[in-house]
Amino acid sequence: MGTLRGENAPEMLRCATYASPVGTLYLATEGAALVGLWMEGQRFFGAPYGVLPEPSVPVGVEAEAARWLDAYFGGSRPAPSELPLAPQGTSFRRRVWQELVLIPYGETVSYGELAARLGSSPRAVGGAVGHNPIALIIPCHRVLGADGGLGGYAGGAARKRYLLAHERGADVLLACAPALR
How does pLDDT run along the chain (181 residues), one tens digit per residue? Predict the structure, then answer.
């Protein structure tokens, strides 16, 4: 795919925020690549960096990511390959994240299906999916439990439900909106 880069020499970490229908998103960049996109209050917020710098006005890659998000929430289907992505993680986690970007917009797979593709266990895949540092763009919300249930989602079940409904073109229930903020 070419957009998920391996480990890079450390550069200055920058952060910006983006107001979205699922709450405030935090965009983190290092050099010319997006390394993080987290939802306020999600599990593993800021991982693997720990504390993020104070958010500033989006510039460069952050501004590109904001335009990508505008298109996504506006109903377009931007591809992850439109952005330079460099998630930090083990080689196994990066392999899982590569598989996530192959899940078509509006479709889902189970943890078991993903594990079978990778020759791994659903539990190991679930751990990698849960630690995805670039939410939405690397679409971990498209992975469901074996029974079709939402399973875990670092951003919370209400956000996952919203994102799946949004991608499927469903009328997203306004009743979900307060639970997202």
Answer: 333 434 443 458 999 999 999 999 999 999 999 999 999 988 888 888 876 778 888 889 999 999 999 999 999 999 999 999 999 999 999 999 999 999 999 999 999 999 999 999 999 999 999 999 999 999 999 999 888 878 778 888 999 999 999 999 875 544 344 454 4
CA distance 56 to 43: 23
- Write out the E strands in 8-161: 13-20, 23-30, 33-39, 109-110, 143-144
* Catalytic annotation, residues: 140
As a whole number of angstroms, the distance between CA 101 and CA 109 comes to: 12
Paired sense of beta strands 109-110 and 143-144, if any: parallel
